[in-house]
User: What shape does this take?
Amino acid sequence: MALLANDGKDRAEQLLLLTDRLIEYIAEETRRIDAREPPLEGAAADEKNRMANAYRLELARIKQDRTLLEGAPQTVLDQLKKRTTALHEHLAQHEMALGAVKLITEGLVQAMAEEIARQRGGAAGYGAQGTPQAPAGPIPTIIDRSA
Assistant: This one.
């Protein structure tokens, strides 16, 4: 979805508002990650995704055709540059928070896999030919607070 703008000034102002709104969403998501709260969902998540897509598409359009911002006052363009820098800073913080969550999640999955392997490790027996034999059925795995 592209922005519907009358001229370069209107487009720059809309892009400025869109950037501000994206900063709010990214800051809120980062706050939720830090507070160990669930991510945005429902209408808020849908709106954030629509705005991010609109932002991405509009930047691609402007990159292809710089005349889309012709006539925009320099003060608005300067504000847009500052807000874009702020958006990139918030995105970097968000990426760090997501990286930490990913690292912790991967550690938990690894620990669970090691515990499952430990529990299943001694269960294999030897068959008639003297080779290790896999268990005949499913092996229950217990992951509790001691794992």
